[in-house]
Amino acid sequence: xxxxxxxxxxxxxxxxxxxxxxxxGTEVLGHVExxxxxxxxxxxxxxxxxxxxxxxxxxxYKWAKRVGVDTIRKQVMDDHERxxxxxxxxxxxxxxxxxxxxxxxxxxx
Length: 109
Hints:
Elements (H helix, E strand, L loop, with lengths): L10 E5 L2 E2 L3 E2 L2 E6 L2 H19 L6 H8 L1 H10 L1 H15 L6 H8 L1
Antiparallel strand pairs: 1-4, 2-3
Helix pairs in contact: 1-3, 1-4
């Protein structure tokens, strides 16, 4: 008898937790099989969904409750191409607004 096993990592996508005045565990949005997909899905939540549908200074867990976890899951997990486009657009736009003064100083010598 021969027994073999294949290690297949699965990445869980969690979001909408809180630790402060309100304490709330995270919501499981879904599972993906690659690190790249987990990054794209996570950025898709932050970049597209909260930026376009969130209210000013609204916490992500309150936004998730208002919009609905199932709706967010459909937007981010079920429509991978949309999440991927959002992640790409977010990375591009953020490069102009997120400046690291220590990195600039180190490059200058």
